[in-house]
Amino acid sequence: MRNKTIIRSLIILTIVAAVLTFIKLPYYITQPGMATELAPIVEVENGYDERGSFSLTTVRFGRANPLTYLWAQFNEFYYIHPLEEIRGEDESDEEYLNRQLHMMETSQESAITVAYKKAGKEVDYKFHGVYVLNVLKDMPAAGKLEAGDRIYKVNDQEFETSDEFIEYVSGIKVGKDVLISFERNGDEKETAVKLAPFPEDPNKSGIGISLLTDREIIVEPEITLNTEKIGGPSAGLMMTLEIYNQLTKEDLTKGYKIAGTGTIATNGEVGPIGGISQKIVAADNAGVDIFLAPNEKDIPTSNYNEAVKTAEKINATMKIVPVDTFEEAVVYLTDLDEKR
User: Fold this and answer.
1) CATH superfamily of 124-216
2) Which residue, among 114, 113, 51, has the nearest Cα to 336 in the 3D structure?
3) β-sheet with 290-294: strand ranges across
4) CATH of region 32-59+99-122+220-334, choose from 3.90.950.10, 1.20.1600.10, 3.30.230.10, 3.40.630.10
5) Where along the chain do the CATH 2.30.42.10 domains lie?
6) Is the confidence at residue 162, as pLDDT, over 90?
7) Catalytic residue among 107, 162, 234, 277
8) Model's pTM, two decimal places?
9) Is 234 an annotated catalytic residue?
10) pLDDT tens digit string along 76-116?
11) Is 249 one of the catalytic residues?
C-alpha cells in the first residue's frame, strides 16, 4: 500500500511539474551559455589555418516558468529579467528574435569591413532595400506589414537605405496612402498604408515601422558566415579577429584558446555587452586561456572590471584582457609569445 502511495505521489508531482513548464511568467531567465569556436562558423576562401582558436561566448536565455524562476533564485549566475528589460514596448517574441538576428547581420558587416580593411582588402556593398524590424500596434502598418518583411519600393520609388525611405515618407502628408511593395517569405506583395501621426509625437508622421537597411557586403576573397542560430551584436569583436586571422599569414592565436565578447563598430571601436559575468563562467568552463573584454575606457562599471571580479570569484585562471578597439586586440595578440 505504501509503495502505491509513493508511486501515485510521484505521478502527481510529474504531472504538476509538466503543467508548470507551460505556464509563462512575465520574466526571462538568463544563464551562462557556451564558448563556441569560430573557425567552423567563419570561412574565408583559401584562408590561413590557426594553431589555437578564437571563440565567441554566449548567454542562454528563455521565458521563465514557475520552475525555472524558482531555480534561478538559488543559482548565482542565473539572472531574472522583466519582459520590458529584454523586449521593446509592444514587441512580440517573434519581433524580438527578428531584431536580434538582424543585429547579428549588422555586426557581421562591421566585422567583415574592419577585418578586410585592416588586411588591406577592398570592401564594397550592394543594396536590396529595407527590412521591417517591428511594427507599432496602434499605427497604420499593423496587420499589413510584419517583422522580417523586405520593402523595396514605395509608390514606385525604389530605396537603397532606411534613411532614404524615411526621408521620402516623411515628405508625404498625413492621411495620404502610400503603396508599399515588399517581399515576405520569398513572395512579392503590395499593400496600401495610410500615413498617421505617432501617438507619442504628433508632430512626427509615418506608417509605424522601424527599419534596417538590407545590404550585401562584397569582398574578395569571398567569406561565408554560418550564424543562422546566433543573434545579437556581442560576437562582433571575436568575429573580426577570426576573419582577420584567416586573411593574414601570421597566426594571432599563437596556440592559445582565446575567447571574448564585445560589439564592433565600422571604425573598429569595441562596445559593451550584457551578461559579461555569465560569459566569463562559460569561458572558464570551456578551459579558455585568454578572455578579451570591452574596457569602456576603463570606467569603474566597465565590462572588463566586472569580468575581473567574476573571474576572481570563480577562481578562473584565464587572463582577462581589456580592449577598447580592434587595433588594441591585434597589438596585444601580436606581442604574445607562442604557447608552449
Assistant:
1) PDZ domain (2.30.42.10)
2) 51
3) 79-82, 27-37, 53-63, 257-260, 290-294, 319-323
4) 3.30.230.10
5) 124-216
6) no
7) 234
8) 0.81
9) yes
10) 999 999 988 877 666 677 777 777 777 778 889 999 999 99
11) no
